[in-house]
Prior knowledge:
The protein is 0% helix and 58% strand. By secondary structure, it is mainly β.
Amino acid sequence: MESGGFEGQTGAVYNSNLSNSDRSADVRDDWAWNSDISAGNALQLTRDLRLNSERICAAKLWDRFDAFNTIDPGTSAGLRYRFGLGRQAPWILLEDGLATIGSRTLHKAVVTTCSIFRLVLRFRPDRAGMRLCV
């Protein structure tokens, strides 16, 4: 079984000290428009094992300091194993991602990778639906 989807979010960001200066004369502020778009796909390998893949594009456009404008593409893949049946079963996720982080000019772009290991435990001791996530 295969499933996929698109997701996006956008909004304004204000940075009161964009220059990260500790001298008040060098402190500069600016507004940015921040947008993230992702498209993902999931493939159910077995009853309890699922492979997720996602393509991501993040963009940040600054008002006055446009040299900080960025468009950062990336991708990630994850393997999820569910212990037991149903939505409330605990699961474990091993995920790895690759992203380009940098400015508009290609010679400043840096390729980074990150790995995530996550264990999620959920339980329902009563009908209230209490959940515990670790």
